[in-house]
Amino acid sequence: MKLIGSLSSPFVRKVRIALLEKKLECQFESEDVWAADTTIQQSNPLGKVPCLVMDDGATLYDSRVIVEYLDTLSPVGRLLPAAGRERIDAKRWEALADGLLDACVLLRLEATQRDEHERSARWIERQRGKVAAALPVMAEALGEKAYCLGSQTSHFSLADVAVGCALGYLDFRFPEIDWRTPHPNLVRLHERLLQRQSFIDTAPA
Ligand SMILES: N[C@@H](CCC(=O)N[C@@H](CS)C(=O)NCC(=O)O)C(=O)O
User: Fold this and answer.
1) What is the CA angle 32-61-126, rounded to 5?
2) What is the pTM (predicted TM-score) of this model?
3) How far apart are CA 94 and CA 101, in angstroms?
4) Closest atom, ligand 1, to C-alpha of 49
């Protein structure tokens, strides 16, 4: 398998963490999707990373589909519960964390890919509002649990991978957004996740 991506993308990081947690071998091919000569659309018509090239040459995107596929390849480091309410809870956590990241990526594009006169204050405000609204919902759902998923006894899952990537990206690209002061339980989760080798090895760069 080959993963096409960039070391700064939080969506690519989600897949890299899944590969490490599941101890799956995979080549990494670095791709700058913003470069004029990018060939990403030969693998993903949407022109986005991550994109997974499977051994038979078929390609998979996006990060949610890739991670779900990887989880079927081995019982090691199971990331998604097999079925039922817990499985869909994990997917909802992932949708929330990815949605926060979508807003962050749009904010970043506004700042890096558009000229000053093209930028829209209303659009920026709208995206910032999504980030600001998602964080307290995450904190409320986490409560005093060690990990996102489960009620009394929580356990590490894809939900934590997704939330950890979202919080890590905020620190990486938006250090001015203070999510720590209002949400000490998210800080505790983030610190717990940062002790895992998979998170250490994939720190955004
Ligand atoms: N929903 C997608 C989002 C992927 C995404 O937005 N990737 C960004 C890099 S962080 C990208 O490739 N953007 C290029 C573009 O929008 O043209 C996923 O989960 O994989």
Assistant:
1) 75
2) 0.97
3) 10
4) 12
